[in-house]
Amino acid sequence: QAAETVTMWTFLNPEKDSPRDRALRQIIENFEAANPEIDIAVESQVWSTLTEKFVVSHRSGTAPDIGWIVGEAMGLLINSDTAADLGPPIADKWDAAYRENLVLPQAYDWLTKDGKLHAMPIMAISLVLFYRKDLFAEAGIDVAKVKTWDAFADAAKKVQLEKDGRVERWGTGLHLSTEKTTMSPAANALMAQQGGRLFGEKCKAMLANEDGVRALQMQNGLITEAKVASPESFVYTLDDVIEQFTAGKVAITTAGNSRYGSIAQKAGWDAAGLGIMPWPSFDGTAPGPQLLSGWFAAVSKDSPRKEAAAKFVAYMTGPEAAELWTDPGGQVPIYKSVFAQAKFQAPAYDWMRELAGMWAAAEVWLPPDCNATRTFADLNTASQKVVLGEVSPMDALKAAEEATAARQ
Amino acid sequence: MLARPVRRLLDVGVSALIVTVALFPILWGFLSSFKPSAEIVSFPPRLFPSTITFEHYRAIYDTGILHYLLNSFLVSAGTIALCLACGTIGAYALARFSFRGKTLVTLVIIMVMSIPIPSLLIPTFTWISDLGLINTRLALVLVYTAYQLPFVIWILATYYQSLPEELEWSAAIDGYGKLATLWKIVLPLSWPGMVAATLFVITFAWNDFVVAVVLLSSEETRTLPIGIYNYLGFYGRDWGPLLAAAMVSIVPLLAIFLVLQRYFVAGMTGGSVKG
Amino acid sequence: MASVEASGEAIEFQGVSKRYGPAVALAGLDLAIAPGEFVSLLGPSGSGKTTTLNILSGLLRPDSGTVLIGGRDVTALPPERRGIAMVFQNYALYPHMTVAENLAFPLRAPGRRLPPERAAAKAAEVAAMLGIDALLARYPKEISGGQQQRVALGRAIVRDPSVFLLDEPLSNLDARLRLRMRRDLKALHQRLSSTIVYVTHDQGEAMSLSDRIAIYQSGELQQVASPHDIYRHPANLFVANFMGEREMNNVAGRIHDRQDGFFFEGGGLSLELGPRDSAWAALAGRAVTLGIRPEGVGVKPQGESWAVAASVHLVEPAGPDQILYAQAGPVEFCGRTKADDPVRPGESVDLHLLRSELYLFDAETGRTCAAAGEPLDGDLR
Amino acid sequence: MASVEASGEAIEFQGVSKRYGPAVALAGLDLAIAPGEFVSLLGPSGSGKTTTLNILSGLLRPDSGTVLIGGRDVTALPPERRGIAMVFQNYALYPHMTVAENLAFPLRAPGRRLPPERAAAKAAEVAAMLGIDALLARYPKEISGGQQQRVALGRAIVRDPSVFLLDEPLSNLDARLRLRMRRDLKALHQRLSSTIVYVTHDQGEAMSLSDRIAIYQSGELQQVASPHDIYRHPANLFVANFMGEREMNNVAGRIHDRQDGFFFEGGGLSLELGPRDSAWAALAGRAVTLGIRPEGVGVKPQGESWAVAASVHLVEPAGPDQILYAQAGPVEFCGRTKADDPVRPGESVDLHLLRSELYLFDAETGRTCAAAGEPLDGDLR
Amino acid sequence: MIPRAYRYLLPALLIEVAFVFAPLAIGIYYSFHRVRFFELGAFTWFQNYADVLSSSAFVNSLLVTTTFALTATVLTFVVGFALAIFLSREGAPQVAIRAVVLIPYVIAMLVGSMLLKWILSSDAGLLSLANAWLSLDLPTILGDPDYAMAALVANGVWRDSAFAMILLLAGLKSISPTLIAAARIDGAGTWLTFRAIVLPLLRPTIMITLVRLLLHFTNVLTFAFILTGGGPNDATETLTLRIYRVGFQDYDLGTANAMAVILAIVNIVAVSLLVYAFRRRGRG
Ligand SMILES: Nc1ncnc2c1ncn2[C@@H]1O[C@H](COP(=O)(O)OP(=O)(O)OP(=O)(O)O)[C@@H](O)[C@H]1O
Ligand SMILES: Nc1ncnc2c1ncn2[C@@H]1O[C@H](COP(=O)(O)OP(=O)(O)OP(=O)(O)O)[C@@H](O)[C@H]1O
Ligand SMILES: [Mg+2]
Ligand SMILES: [Mg+2]
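YS: structure for the whole thing
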């Protein structure tokens, strides 16, 4: 019997040699060994346009069977109704024990709309705060005590290094550019106050309120009052800030946990000093939300090989693959069972365990059916307006809210 | 007029300034492409690598940059060939014939150049898919040509108009038809215009990312800019290979320029007509 | 196709006109040229000669009228299909080709396409004939003006064409070379018997080369006739004045019918034209302009002539001859005498006006009414 | 600065050379021109005339040598600072300017800078003089070749320059116009007394305009002298042959010292030059080339002449004269006689060689050793 | 029978129709619809246009684009022209410098802008080094709205001067040296020769250069996208960046295409005016 070939678009390339590439290669090999009637053909894509292309090519009938979807663009996938329902072939078959094994149970609800499971999570990533353990130690700061934004600003001040009136190292990096945006501290603080929510009914953004003003002023204060972040933060993207952190120019930064490896590898300082801390909050009672995202697999609705495709997706997103994603892939496991394995008890995996703990405490997903991605940019614009344009925080937030509303 | 030595000095000074301004950012990138990864983004930045490493060049070689180069080369060559083939005859018509609708054609040229390319991407994708050309290099060639052709025609037509028409008359008398005249007389005399047009088209085709990323979807057809862009990865920017690839991508274009630059000569029509 | 296209073709212009805005470059040209004929176009600068050639070669579209070559209406035919060779007034050499390549270019044209060696050999041969064989490897901008002109000429010659248009092809050559070229052209014409239309400003050239000469003025053809006829029987005052190295001496007057015969009277002159019963009767009473060439004004009695008292005021040497200017009453006469005729400025002399050089033109129309001393029956042309 | 720059300046070339690769365009030119002098350059095509002008105007750098204008070494001076006006052989009109603008352009130059109305008025005036006033609004490509040439001329004239270089400025004009222009140039020269260097192929022009004529051959200056001297006392065979409408009749031979006097013998001729005790002695035994202009060959005895039996084989009319070709033994003579001299092809005639037209040239060097029938003491020049 | 001119233009016209006008038609069609998430929705007449025109963000981007495009065009043209003249001789040094100037043009735009951002950033880049070495206190460039615009313009000039230079150089080469010589003889010095001979003869080339630069700068995305991200405070959010964001980040193709159509119309009008001005002032 001729093998059925299932095409998959991903930003990885199993023919190459990064840890994740190797993981995918192994996963495919394992799968093909177990399912000789199915061949997996990978077409490697540029990650940033992958989802859009998947959706558009679906429209023109040239879509692959499986597409990887980046979390930020999940709204596009779901709203455009491109994907096949993965409930019946995968999730509906799960038993309670299986569900219990999930690190991020909310993810599946998040991916479900109108009873249809649009995609399956492959790897989960959240925005976390990286900090320099070594510098904190030097300054005598106990990271566990940095629970409030005030404490955060204090700590940042302490690890900031100035020489001749010039800043050699900023306390914290802020990525407040309106390009390539993700959750800023202000957004985190705002969401924390609103129970992890940024959107209300009918995708109405909840920005222009007292909480928003407070969050915004806290963030701007880091630049203008505490002066622990660069005034150029308004043009920095997340990548810029992470690089500054890696270079040692910044002591605390936001970053996707997925960056752990590359930061550790390229750091201009001892990589042992790399740590992750929970988000502060205003009252310090609970940590700020862990905004989750990551990569997901969707099967094209029009694929003639839905069944085979779903089979592979099930495997690729299942516990067995999760192990490979963790080793060699270096991803934080999305099945608890992975942590149970002996080889993942090593100290090198401590941070993953820690992070999984944070996720459990503060897992948050943005509503996928809202056009939410650029709301963070709107918030950044608001931040810029307040600092540079002398607009009142409330007005700035109102404008942001309107901008978001116009987008829905 | 200034004394000679002063002029010389001024020349050298201005030249140095030009070179510095133009080259400094590139030099920065060039030197960085030989630094170990950790050193590239280190702070404080350092101009020269502490140790010279070729790891980034090896890395891009391993990711198959040669294949990307080949694709880019094919696409660029195809684009320039098509642009010049259609451009020369089109420009000739525009420069030398008077016909109804000439203004309209001029307007079309301006119109095409006026359209912001991003707004065409989605329809182009759909349309190219319908044509069954998606993920082919041919599609890129056609689309690039479509974007650049108006400009090529405009440059060439302007250049043709600056040539003495008597030479074409003479060729006609000597028994050459319009196309033969274009080929034997007009083209050889419009080298500077052709060089300029070629350079612009190739630079566009060689560096385009936006269209390529939309129309191409396999490793097989991937062009160099996509290869470069890929180093702006999901897991962070890979400055080393990114810069290495960018440096490599400059080389062919510069080589082409240096070769074509020979044809940048003045007074090509000297001695041809009185008047 | 053989390399010799020759054996000329007939050419005919029928009511061909061309205007540039309000300016008329050519007004209703009617001109028929026989196969193998050598016709020169002569006329003041800007009178439409080049325009005529350009229309004939197809480079210009006439506003109206028809052009026939070999009996075929070619008005709408593009230049490359008319089988015409042409020397451009401004040369139009191909700047990116060497002299050799320029010369060989027409031979390599589609439809003629000689093999490269044959073409090169032919080009070299023509170059030798033109004395530019040492320059074959040069580019047009590396040779002198006269050399460029010869290349332009060579490029037309090399084809052995059946119709051959030359726009002042020798103007930038020295006298010596011009004479040789003239001879070569003549030989070429005889060998190929091609039809040649030749624009020149050199009357000597036109006279010695042409079967017929066409005289233009302001876009209008004035006369087409053999060199001799043009010189001896100009159609009108313009032609008469234009031909010859210098203008005629012109005197306005009237033909008087007196008892003792017919007289020209005007400008203080009274010249007896003929007896009462002569053919002059037809002209009696007409207002005319008298014209007489300097060659017809001497200081010695020669043949039949009228004597006019005058005082010399300028004598210019001109090679073997001399030119004298003398005032006779209100009229200044210009005459030509042998260099050794002893006349000096200030002297009073008797100017002798040769009857055989006498012309009369209708004062209004300019038409010739008497030529070479004899009245014309009807008006010429 | 006033609009009249004039009152000419002296020009001097000192050992000026220019080569293009192996080709010598100008070889060690030494030439001094006095202020206000009118010098014509004459020579075959490609002999270095334009090169001379270009070096003088500063467009070309000589390979060696010095150029002085008004006593100042200008070899390194850029063209715009030499105060020279020039008519280019290829016109070089500004294609984007109308005729009026072309004409007015030199008046806009810094240091000359006339107010626009004055400049326009001046341009219009020059245009009127050149007969192109109706074309002022046209662009160069909209006018005829001769009109273009006149614009080029006008652009140089308009400046009233003190040094004035003209490269065949009248070659594309008809005879009538050329004559008028010649007169206007002469008047201009007299009015401004500017120094004029004039390249022409028309010997008549050179003769009638110039104070002195410089004859070139292959980049080498052959002779500089007044028109009369050039014609009557050519420095060598080349100059003698080059001047005059047609070449001299040349016969190779030797001067024999016989009992009955000195004789030229060669080509079957034996011409007695003078008695034994005459100045011819200095030339005795020399191999020489005899030269005699067609004007010196007639069919009637005139003055002192030698008779040579010959048979006529061709007679060509040439206006008031005729040219005859006759064979005398191995030598073909070309002669010029009055049109009414009755000679017919095939006839046997006695050719009369005029002693006053006899020239002898050293067979080796070409130097003139006898002119106008008389031996020269030393060699000329 | 098709007239010959059109036969010659046919291949070009076919390609344009197939790959520009066809997609353009679809784009225009979109602009009259609600298109969200690449899904063609209801036909909304001019709703998108009305929305766009009444949006202050759009007006801001239009102003930004105008400021940026005009400044960059003028400066690039001037620099390019100066370069073309300075480097017009065919000596080895001139050729070498031309090649050098060309490098910013031929390097991938994205990489060029990234390098500039790196250098200009006062935290990571050389600016901080310069500050340290020279003990200067240079202002933050990218963090200040005015300086950021200046930086954006600088990026454009830095990259595209070579383009103007090449085009003008080609134009300069088409001018016959004889004419220059004639002008010198006529007594015109360098300046008058330049003004009265070179400039007018270069007019068509100058027009092309200006038009192309203007269109390039109104339509370019990369500079703003990479160098400033449109910030700070939207001071550099060009129209193209806005179109990109609305179309590809907000997935609102209807509005994006409406903006694109407006931008194209503005472009066409601006260019037509420019062309007209050039035509009117000279013929021949
Ligand atoms: N750029 C050049 N390269 C090589 N040879 C040249 C160049 N310019 C001129 N020559 C040669 O130099 C010689 C002198 O040229 P020049 O133009 O001075 O002649 P000329 O006397 O003006 O002739 P003409 O009467 O034909 O205009 C010619 O033989 C010509 O071929
Ligand atoms: N393109 C044009 N636009 C306007 N007028 C023109 C154009 N071409 C020629 N003319 C005019 O037409 C007339 C005839 O020009 P043509 O070239 O035929 O003259 P020509 O007899 O060859 O003169 P020349 O002996 O000076 O070369 C001239 O008066 C000229 O000014
Ligand atoms: Mg003419
Ligand atoms: Mg010359």
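YS: worth flagging: The longest helix of chain C spans residues 175-192.
IM: good catch. Also The helical segments of chain C are 49-57, 99-104, 116-130, 145-157, 175-192, 203-209, 227-232, 237-242.
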